[in-house]
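Milestone M4 deliverable, item 7.
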Amino acid sequence: MKNIQIILNAILSQDVFEYILIDRAYRITDFSENITRYFGKNVHRDDDIRDYLPEIVGYEDRIETVLEDEKNRYVLETVYKNDYYINIHLEHYSKDKVLILLHNTTEITLSKLELLQYSNDNQLLFNTIKKILDSQDNLLVVTSNNKIEYANKKFLEYFSLKSLDELKERNENNFSITSLPVRSFDALYEYAKEEEKELTIGEDTFLVKATLLEKTYKLFTFSKITKLCDMNRALEEKINRDPLTGLYRKSYFDEKLAEALEYDQSVTLVIADIDNFKAINDRYGHLVGDKVLKESADLIGSQLRDNDLFARWGGEEFLILFKCSKQEKIVEKIEKIREMVDTHVFDGAGHLTVSFGVATSKENDTVYSLLERADKALYLAKKKGKNMVVVG
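Output delivered:
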């Protein structure tokens, strides 16, 4: 299960989630715009997260484990911040970033406190449950001894049920509400009592949280995040892209290259470098230089397949990953690209050339060793006169 990720407009507007991204130095790299409501002051990039969330102090070693293993996550429950009750989730985002997800549990927390005041009077308990649950936007259900005792309006509407009585008529064994291998609500409680878990209902994705209210009574909260997952994928794509060229960033490229090598996939790596690019900037200015970079990326990219990974290393260098070990075919393709660039007239800069270094993976190769061989091949192409393809 992929860890729950960044919360965007559709969910943020409902005051349910906010997020912060931090790097290995505990510096804030990104955050949602409404995060300040929990702190009472403006949040800035490069600030130390521990200045805003002192609760993180003492958890630094856990953050390290989250960075190293995407399966690791930690939850600080019911933290009181600036008149809000929140749960703080520490989750893996990438090998260099941790996602801190702040889940607003104010209504649920206050609801539980209010419910527990009436734990000795079942009738008052159910009346209170009805009032609270029907006011929620999430799907909420209360069970006792594995039977549904109450469900809010959102739950009934989602399953096209007219009344609670109609719901109660269903046997729990044929009322399958999740994609998980759980046979009962009690089993679902055991699955989700420690922390929120992601599951699917029909075609929708939900977060489910199970809470023990009193003795046998259990509250299940289903938060719909279908749009969130879709938007998060879009945001993740945006974060992984170079804003100038639209190509992937090197950090993302390195991750995918490492994955390919880990699973013993035979790959060929190509490093492309625009020849004499500094002279273009010096002669025509950086705006023209930027146009050349974008035009070069578009030109090279037009000759690549959808499953070829194309990234910008930085400056005027590009990276191409071919999941193919047939080096002669790759070299033939790169030669055609080189010739195409050589005959192209760039807007505002005229003629320019590109040099290429090529390396095919070997047994026990690492990201560093493969990049090093390709980089040495590129250096040799430059040394021999540029505008050529050299295999390392």
